Every structure is written in structure tokens, then in C-alpha cells.
Amino acid sequence: MQKNINANITDFLSMDEFISYSQELYHINEEAIELAKQNNLEIALQILHKLTLLNPNSYIGWFNKGLCFARMGNLQESWDCFNKTIQIDNSEPLAWYNKAVIECFLRLNGKRSFMKFFELDYLDEYQELISRSTNFLRELEVLFSPQQPEKRFGLPESDQRYGTDGTPSIVSFRTATEKQIFHRENYKEILANNKDENFFNQNFLNSLKEQFEVGPKLMGDMANFQRLIHLKKMEIYLTITECNLEDRLGRRLFKFKNYEYHQVLDMTEYEFEEKFHEIQTDVIEEMHKNMLTMNNQWRNFS
Q1: Ordered strands of the 240-243 beta sheet
Q2: Phi and psi at residue 17, to the nearest 5°
Q3: Helix 111-120 / helix 93-105 crossing angle, nearest 10 deg
Q4: What pairs with residue 172 in β-bridges?
Q5: pLDDT tens digit string along 255-284?
Q6: What pTM, to 2 d.p., does this model score?
């Protein structure tokens, strides 16, 4: 999991430049910085380890070690280093910022660290980092809220049309996070720009033709219709937290797992798509209509 996180974490950390010494052990620190910039992270860490052995109270040495560990994907070790930096000098705003970011990627609540960063950056020196922090805080409010913005819905129209085994169909959705909204916008752009006919699942296309009386006008606009259905699929994929719909063999279509204060989907996007194609389009429409009640921002752009 950390390797996947590491692909993005350097976009968020304050890593424009490592902190330089002005006094003691200057040359050791500068050598480590140059090695780190050349991506020789293990050697840089060895040198920084030597630095912190020679001077255990070197907040700069611990700070730079934290950045090296973060670049290597060792997030717990990185957090330990930033925490040590703060223990030595709790007035360095970048240490609090990087500690907060690491806490988010470790699924810890970094709100206190972000607030400390805001408090110390009283001159608004780090405008870009302030913007990033605000986005992180929005997500933290959703992720760590004891009462998740989530709601369960029935599917009465689908149940009446297709019948049930006595158990009503249910589905739950939650409010999308900032990252999910961003992911959805990227997906929407990909759909709009993709002209490859093979991009869409052909079995899905055939099922659409079976479910609708496809006239010449709709046939001519089938690609756009598919794009709309695929966008709805993505919106459901990003926000669904519970569903008891079953396949033809009586097995649940979607898998979920408990995470923090709520359930989350336990399927890759590809696995979800394969199962999603088994659902009748009018059932998808009823599911999507319920999803929009939790994510009104997508109502006018679907």
C-alpha cells in the first residue's frame, strides 16, 4: 500500500529544497542534500544518520531524514523523523506541515498538525501549502467524522419490475471526498476525448441494445449514451458503501469491507465494472438517482 501512496505523496510534501545548515556539521548535511537530490537516498540516509548520531538534537538532520524516508515510501519512519524534529524545535512550520501530510497518508487524523502549521505560518509565507492543507482538512472532516454523510436507500421501482426473494433491495451512498470529485472529473474528461470504439465493453453495448428499443437517432448517438452510463458507473463506484443486489447465481454483486467509521468498496475499478455490467440499465438509473441526493454537485453535469 505504501508504494501506491508514494507515487503521489511527493506531490504534497514540502520538498522544494532540503533545509541547509548555517553552523555546525554544515558539510555533512550539504553532502546528504546533494545525494538526495540525485536520488541516492540510501547513501544520503546513512550520512544523515551519522549526523544525528553526532548531534541528536539536530532538528535539521531529523527533518531531512524525514524527507528521504518519505521519498522511499517508508512513511512510518518518515513520521517518526518529523515527530522528532518537532520535539527538538516545535516552531518550524514545515515540520508540522509534512507531519500532517504523512498522517493523512497513514490514515491518521492530521488535523491538529495542520492547525499548528497554520498557527506558525502567521506571515502566510507558504501560500501553496496553505491551499493544499485546506483541501486535506476537508477530507479529514469526512473521513474522521463519527457520523459519516451516508444514507441507505431502497430500490422500490426495480423491485416491483423484477421482483425479489422477499428481501427488499438496498443501496447506500456517501458524500464524495475532494479526491473522489477530482477523480470523477478526470474520468469525465477521458470519456469525452476517447474516440476508440473498443474503449467500451462490447457486452455492455449489447445489453443496452437488448434493454432499449434503439431507433436510428439513438443508434447514432450510442457512443454518447455509453459515455453517460460509464460516467454514472464511476460516480456510483466512488460513493457506494452498501448494496445487496445479487447475480444470477444468488451471490452478492459487490464486496465491501469495514474501514474506520464506515464501509467502503473492496473491489478494484475493473472488478466493479465487470459486475456493474450485469445490472439492468433502469436499475442503474434508480441507483444513480439516489446517489445524486448525496452528491448534488454532480446533478447538472452527468
Answers
A1: 150-154, 170-174, 240-243
A2: -155, 145
A3: 160
A4: 152, 242
A5: 998 765 567 888 888 899 889 988 988 899
A6: 0.49
Query: Which residues are within 8 A (CB) of 17 and not within 5 positions of it... i.e. 6 or more apart?
Result: none
Enumerate domains of the chain plus CATH numbers. 2-143 (1.25.40.10), 150-298 (no CATH)
Amino acid residing at 149:
P
Round to whole Å and give the CA distance between 285 and 212.
14
Q: Report the distance separating Cα 221 and Cα 143, nearest Å.
A: 40
Rounded CA-CA distance 87/81 in Å is 10
pLDDT at 2 over 60: no
C-alpha closest to that of 98 among 179, 177, 86:
86
- Give the list of residues 6+ apart from residue 169 with CB closer than 8 angstroms, or none: 154, 155, 158, 159, 244, 245
Q: What is the pLDDT of residues 32-56, one digit of tens each?
A: 777 777 777 788 888 888 888 888 8
